[in-house]
Amino acid sequence: MRRRLERGGKAGRIAPGRTQPEDAEGEMRVQTLEPVRGRRSRDERAQVRAPAALRLNPDVLGVAAPPIPEARRWAERYGGRLGPAIDLTQAVPGYPPHPQLVARLAAAAGDRETYAYGNITGDLALREAYAAELSGLYGGAVAPEMVAITTGANMASYAVTALLARAGESVMLPVPWYFNHRMNAGLLGVDAVPLPCRADCGFIPDPDEAAALMDERVRAVFLVSPNNPTGAIYPPETLRRFSDLCRDRGIALVLDETYRDFLPGGTDRPHDLAESGWPEHLIQLYSFSKSYCVPGFRAGAVVAAPEVVAELAKLLDCLQICAPRIGQAGLAWAIDALAGWRAENRAVMNRRSDAARAAFARLGDWRLDSQGAYFAYLRHPFPGRSSWEVAEALAVERGVVTLPGEAFGPGQERHLRLAFANVEAERVAEVAERLRDFRMS
Ligand SMILES: Cc1ncc(COP(=O)(O)O)c(C=O)c1O
């Protein structure tokens, strides 16, 4: 039995009159997707798990479980015929954290101060260091009171969704979406308005289309750049137009820049939104997990106008009281001290990205539709087969473990997401080789 993030509910249905996501040749067409209700019908596994005697919140039951554990279970059925399984599911670098950061974290674990509760919005040293980094990066002043440190960027996006929208209101999410952004909305009874992105437009969302789909219930647009799952890097002009749209509508632009440190070399300032002061409607999310290889320490950040951060603090007090303090202590040092190390890692990831482009370009009937940071969004050559079927068969038969496009929203049947963050450049070519003569039975 297979998980579908949008199984069973209205999600993924194409609006009447434009019924097919794909034509006979399997090409994507312009599609209009219906808003997805915050609460959806439970999927099969959720029904199996729900206790019989205890009534749980239907909004929670309606949200599907995360897809990565399931994809990894497929790999257990791979016999190893082609060598060890290659896990392309989790978007976190495979190289270790810097040894000096490890030493700092170990030292912080011996400091009794880190055992105490800290500030709700984070320790001042980390907020100062991050604010200074952002001020340099964006060419605008970011003050420490505009920064809230969270227990990871996922907790940040949950808290920000709760801050912006009430149950019954909506958030707009480009499709394919980052599944946790969709899950956040569902858990909170907030609807998701899908904004379709197309391969022939590089999966860049269109602000005019967003404006046309927006009604007064939409309280925020969530963008992720570089994008997970497509890797698409949104041009500064697109981000500017989304920002203007959100400002004009009096809603928030939430910009998740978790993969900012893996932009292609030469792209240092991803946008100019904060150049002349931080706009009140802009909320930026960041994760320390990837750039510093410390996902287990759970550290993320929200940057927003001070008044917005002050309100967010109410949510953070309930959700975390404070973010874990050992990680904060190490990261306050690392932001400046490891800037060079991060730049080297960025070059490593850029090389993997180049290797993926070269390897998949020679793959014939598979098509690399989009790529960036350490993601490749690959179109499979099996019309009529769902991405769940293809991903499962690939994992079991070839030991190539990917995530199905459908985990990232409606209309993604033809795509697989490959995260090559923990696969060295040489092995990226091996992935392509394992795909080459693969056929679905
Ligand atoms: C777009 C995006 N935001 C947030 C996160 C989660 O980051 P964290 O580990 O800080 O919660 C991820 C992780 O995959 C992500 O892809």
Question: Quick recap of the structure?
Answer:
The chain is α/β, with parallel strands linked by helices and 441 residues long.
Structural features, described:
The structure is a single chain. With 441 residues, this protein is an alpha/beta fold. It has two domains: 124 residues, Alpha-Beta Complex (Aspartate Aminotransferase, domain 1); 239 residues, Aspartate Aminotransferase, domain 2, CATH 3.40.640. It contains 15 helices and 13 strands. A seven-stranded mixed β-sheet has the order 2-8-7-6-5-3-4, with helices on both faces. The chain has a four-stranded antiparallel β-sheet with strand order 9-10-13-12. The protein has a two-stranded parallel ribbon with strand order 1-11. Strand 3, helix 7 and strand 4 form a beta-alpha-beta unit. Helix 3 packs parallel to helix 14, helix 5 runs parallel beside helix 12 and helix 13 runs parallel beside helix 15. The radius of gyration is 21 Å and the shape is globular. The N terminus is likely disordered. It binds pyridoxal-5'-phosphate.
**Strand order, biggest sheet?**
2-8-7-6-5-3-4
Shape: globular
Task: Tell me the structural class.
Answer: alpha/beta
Strand percent estimate: 5-15%
Largest sheet: 7 strands, mixed
Please name the CATH architecture of the largest domain. 3-Layer(aba) Sandwich
